[in-house]
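Hi, here's the filled form for the chain we discussed.

Project: internal
Contact: R.S.
Residues: 580
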Amino acid sequence: MPASLIRIINPDSVGRLRREEHNRLKTLAFDKRWEGVVVTDDEFRFQLVNKVFTEVTGYTQEEVAGCALELLDSGKHDPVFVTNMRRNVHENGRWKGELWCRCKNGEIHLEWVTIKAVHDDGGKLINHVICFSDISERKLVEEHINHLAQYDMLTGLPNRMLFRDCLRLAMLRAQRENRIMALMFLDLDRFKEVNKALGHEVGDTVLQHIASRLKTAMRESDTIARLSGDEFTMIMEGLSSIDEISLLADKILEIFGEPILIQGEELFVTASMGIATYLDHTDSEEKLIKAANLAMDSAKLEGRNNYQFYSCATHAESPVRLTMESQLYHALERNEMFLVYQPRVDVKSGRIVAVEVLLRWNNKDLGFVPPISFIPVAEDTGLILPIGDWVMHEACRQCRLWTDAGLTLKVAVNLSARQFKNKNLLRATVSAINAYGIDPGLFELEITESILMNHTESSVATLRQLSDMGVGIAIDDFGTGYSSLAYLKRFPVHALKIDRSFINEITQEAEDLAIVRAISSLARSLHLKVIAEGVETEAQLQFLQYPECDEYQGYLFSKPTTAEKISDMLSSGIVIAQPG
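And the returned structure, exactly as it came back:
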């Protein structure tokens, strides 16, 4: 709507026109429009509304006059969104986008909204003109069309097209976050015989049952898709070790042990599964898909009803993998390994209280090799044991340097599955601590839930001895495992690290916030410390204050960095401003 027209409608300008002309223009500008129109003052208080606005919202001119625009607030938009919207109007003179608005009867409609600021001849803000267009039905149609294009109609799972998009994004996240990502291909054994003997209608029912069971077995962070026929795929993200993949695969095999009841008859269906990890095939989706398919073929050759991992030894050779393995044998002697440190920050004070020790490898031929690529290779070859010992010693050495400089800082070292089961774990840990004479209370071991679940009695005894010395034990990626909470009282655990997957959407997803609060409450009752991983925004940090997390780490404060920069941070007393 032209600014000149609004100035005519504004009561301050009416005196310059005949009343009849004013009413004619008001009718033309307001009541003849197909969209809802609102004029507010400079503080977003209602002044004029048109008939369409009244028809859509149920509010009359008399009811809204002088009221704040928040009268239409649906509660679906957080304060940050509203603040940014108003700032846009103030700085740019306009804003447009989707808004959920609450009507007088309580119904909530999705509206396409445009807001325009109106100034007088002197440049002073005098009005806002807001146009509303109900797009709820259009949105539903768009969502339905998108759903048909991206989801399998029989099972409701993502189809081949959406699967490829999800796989590409999962590979990018795995690379960015240095986490393991796995792709599983699953094919029902002899499913053609089921279709042939019982008919396609029964076959479709079987596929629906399988899809439902897979959704139950997999984690919320995983993606399940149906590519075609009886072929399903699973994208598993945010994994810390190969052991986690095996646990998921075992759980999937278990669901095929239960019969499917169809028309009063029990039907047993088994599956062959092939698994490939992103670390084996770092350059393309096609290679990862091919690898998972090859592994699935191996599972069928092994007698079906099992799973197989893609292996360079049994499938097409991977020159990158073989070269990496060869170079890894010499990495320590060539001084190619180094450590970086990610600060852990006290939520209340904003000060660094600990660091997580992270291993990095820069090879003269391969360049910088991501941990998600070389750690599993080190696990497979057994090289993780000497490398792990070096990490412990180097971490303790740096801890000693900080202590001598008057900087008290706990160092937390990740423990791999092979290290955890190694009978020399106690000796290796004590050796590193004693070599540099550090306080055992400044040393902490981080162990994932999945590793902890595959414990032996000797490894539990080792943890107890380390705990008795004062060494801290933290459970990493807490909340993502498939285990009983009973282990919390069996093991000498001191801290729970909430997995980043719950932190990512904590400001948008009520379920994630509920999980974080439940973990915090559980930890409080057991006198355990709570540490949040992957905190990247102030809004996430704000939410973590209510579940009362003790510490957090993430890009909001700092990416993993060098020991020198950590020293500078500690010496300068740097803190991050705490919201609220």
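Let me know if anything looks off before we file it.
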